[in-house]
Every structure is written in C-alpha cells, then in structure tokens.
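Feature request, filed as a ticket because there's no other form

It would be nice if the structure record came with a short human-readable summary line next to the tokens. Right now we just get the raw output. Example of a typical job, pasted below so the devs can see what we mean:
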Amino acid sequence: MRIAINHTRFRNQGGIEFHIFQLVERLLADGHEVHCFVRRWTPHDHPRLRFHHVPVLPLGEGVKALTFAYASFLKISRERFDVVHGFSKTFEQTVYTDGSGSFSDYRRYLGSASLWRRITTFRPLLAFATWHIERRRFRRTPPPRVLAMSADTREQILRRHRFPAERIVVAYSGVDTQRFQPGTSPALREAVRARLGTPEKRLALLCIGNDFRRKGFDTAIKAMTLLPKALCALWILGQDRNSSRYERLAERLEVEARFLGSSADPTELFAGADAFLFPSRFDVFGNAALEALASGLPAILSRKAGVSELVEDGHDGLLLRDPESPLALAQLVRRIFDPELRQKLAMNARETAKKYSFEAYYRRVLEAYHTAQGTGPKQLEEEKDPGADQ
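Raw output as currently delivered:
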C-alpha cells in the first residue's frame, strides 16, 4: 500500500511520536511505501520512506495548529494514497488514531487548575483551533475509521459528536515486549542506582512524561512528604517548560527527587527502578505506563488514564482513584513496601503487557487500513453525497 502518515513531528522518542515511529518502521518492514507529512522530523533513511515538510505560520500556537491542519490537507490532496492515517491536529484522513481525546473533556481537566493558572495559561485562539479541527474531523463525509486508544476515548467521541459508532474501534497502544522486559542484568540496575545516588535499601519510584501538571507529578512530589524519607526516592524523566517550578517544590518540601530531563531510551531506568507511578489527571492512554508493565514494574496508575483499563486493581497494578490526592497516592505506595505484593504485581504486570504487544496493535491498524483502502483525500471528495452541498 501507499500510505500517508500525518502528524506534526516524526522522531524515535516521546509518547505518540515514538508510537508513530514504531508504526512506520513496521510498515516499511512489510514492504509498504510510507509518506510522512510533518513539520519536523529526525532523519531516517529508507528507500520507501519520504518526508514532506508541512509549513505553518509562526504566529502563536493557535495559528500554527490551524495552518498545519489545512496545509497538510492541501499537500496530501495533491497525490493519491491508499490510506491517509492522521493523528492529532489533523482533520482530513481515512484512518484516524485518537490519542488526544475530546477537547471538551480536556477542558474539564483544565478546570481543575487554580484560577491563576487558568488565567495565565488560557489561549483562546489555540482553544478555538483545537475545537475547530476536532469538529471538522468528526463531522466530515464520509467519516474516517477511528482507532480510539481507550474505551473512554471512544465514549468521549460518541458523547460529544454525532459520529457513527460502527466507525470507531478501541485499539489500545502496543508495546515492544522484547525491548521492554524485566531486568536481567543486576549490574545495570546497580550502575543506574549508583549514578542517581539511590541505595538499594530505598524504593526508587519512577515517573515518566511531559506536561508535568497533567501527569500529576506535583501530586507525586507531595506524596513523598507522607512517606519515610529513608525508604523512598523519586525519579522523574521528561520535559516541561515549567520544570524548575517542580524542582523548587521538591526542594521546598525536602523531597529527594531526581529530575532527569528527557531520554530516547528509558529502559535502563526501568531496570533500576522498583515501582512506576502514573498519577495522571488526564491521559487518553499512557505508553510509558504500558512499557513499565512490560518491564515487570509494579505500577500505580490513575483511573484518569486510559492504560488503567488494562489493569485489574490489586492483581497486576494498583489503581489511583483521585490523582489530586497526595494522601491516596502515598497510601498505595505504602502497600508496595510489601516485597511479596511487589513481586506479585510485577509478574502479573508482565503477563498483562504481553497481551498488548505492538504486533497485536499493528494487526488492528492493518485491519483498519484494508477496510479504508482506496480512499484518499481526492477520492473522499468524490464519495460525498451529491446533494450534501445543495
């Protein structure tokens, strides 16, 4: 097949970006021709891979989002593709992976922030752009095939839009179970902990993600104050434009926290950590959490994250009902002080993750492609009801 992939960025790290990178690699290995329509990309040479630069007007995030969506459509429509697979900030595609969720539901999360934060971070043009792109995506004719990354995301779409339910399937993200697996090298674990200054007697609690507030890292830092300092250390991997604010919070509360920036390969941290914390306030899925499960880490997952749908509370993970509550998170961390429970959760987490391999996810994507095959942007215009514009 000749496939167009449409997203703002292509690189082999991050959440949805790494997810797309894996997908492109797998498509190329299967002999497909892939065209990536993106703003920025990490060079990746392959005879059947081509990058197309999508320009934007650098006049603020709202204008960037709108111009990227419209410019993408114009560039893609000049060629014919068997499948156009779009991700966030796009609206014209035959297959769409929803890794963002409904903007209306995202605004509910924003409403939990302080009044000062809501005032200082409110960007009306970006809000309009996000709403407009989403509305156009789900009200186009014919509608795309939608791969929702969680059951909750599927319900968000059906609740907010008059969208045919039969066009949406839940396709949980997949994990490379060969790359992410329980640590087999005590030397690596020892080296990581020595580098980060965490002795073996302390539990290393790992958090991974960007957008620290949405990921609930402030809750994790505050929860540490309710735990014995001699028994816990917090590792935070990720980027945030306000990361210094969280560093100051940890310093003020005298919490032992290591802010590690970003990394293309978190596997060594999974090998060195004792548990994974994911107290997210809003997350369609949470790829890092699935990687942690595959790595055999006991995980505490927010019920606000789609990945929690894969876990049975107390069997292969612990579920956090209120990501705003440091006390609730600390109580769950205290439970994993028990080495027997840690071992049980770790073993079962690995078995659960194996059910959601990237290969299983890839098969779902191909099913959607074969269903939509032969419908690119030009063909979509031809398929519209002749009386729709009358």
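Something like this underneath would help us a lot:
The CA atoms of residues 110 and 161 lie 21 Å apart.
Residues 61-76 form the longest helix (16 residues).
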